[in-house]
Every structure is written in C-alpha cells, then in structure tokens.
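Chapter review: from sequence to fold.
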Amino acid sequence: MYDSTRSVPNRWKITIDLSVSINRSMEIASPILFGVDGLFSLVIVSTAMRHEGCETNFNCGVHVHIDARQLQFVHVKNICKNWIQYERVIAQFFPEARRGCLAAQYISSVDMITNDGMYNNIDRSRDYSDLIRFISNHNRNVTLNVNNLKEHQKKTLEFRMHPGTLYVRL
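The token string follows.
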C-alpha cells in the first residue's frame, strides 16, 4: 500500500520532493524494510514505477537507513570515524554526479565539512548532540546523516550517497 503523507508508518509514501526544483519531482519513501522480503518489495515498487513511466536522473538519490537502535554510542562513533576515513574511497563506487560538484547542491561530503581534529572531536563527544554538531553541524544533507539518532524515533544512520534507480535486482 502507499500513502501521500509522512505520518502513516509501515506504508510506502509518495510526497513532493522539496529538495529538487524540477517540475513533478516526487519522493518515494519506503517503510522500514527487512531481509529478502524487504528487498523483494523494493523490486516490485521500482518495477511498477518504471512501467508507469517514472524516470530518475542525477538529481535522484537513494537514502539508505541503517537501524541503530541496538548500537552503543561508542559503536556509532566508530562508524563515523570509519566513514570519514573511507568516504573518498567509497565515493569511487558511485557515479561522478553523486560525488562531484553536481551533487554538492544536494549532499555534502562529511570530509569536506570536517577539520583535522575530527577524530578527537568524535572521541570527545559525550552524546548524540555533540556528535551531530561535529559530523554535520546539524545539516541533514551530508553523505552520512546522524541527525536521526537524536531527533527521530526511528534511530537510524542515514547514508545519502547512493544514486537513484528504478532497476533493482536481487
């Protein structure tokens, strides 16, 4: 099922994408997906969208949310430090439009907004408010968005570098 509001849990949602200034820009948000069944539902939805004439371009992205409810704070800090260290290498797996100047208007590299003392700042973080300030300065539009850890009940790490696609395969 789908719904056009953000307030209905456990349903696919279709909303206007305010981050893209192109006519008819829509955002598709999935419920939390688990395992092979979750991937299978992603295949079904992406196939249906393709058959209905939907398209993607370099403006489109997939935001991957990783459940962090069971992670201890020290584990989240280690993930952040590893992301900072390896972000440029990971970026090489994605199209240039998702890592170059075209993407900069939608997402920023965590590496670009950090300083030399970032590892120390992360180590000194006492809580998620500190970590969010050090990693993104409260900006959600970075390749690793940690804002959900404090602000939302879903408690996820959000990776925002993936390109949009309508061709999902298992």
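Two observations follow directly from the output. The beta strands are 2-3, 12-16, 26-29, 61-67, 144-145, 156-163. The helical segments are 35-51, 73-91, 101-104, 118-124, 128-136, 148-151.
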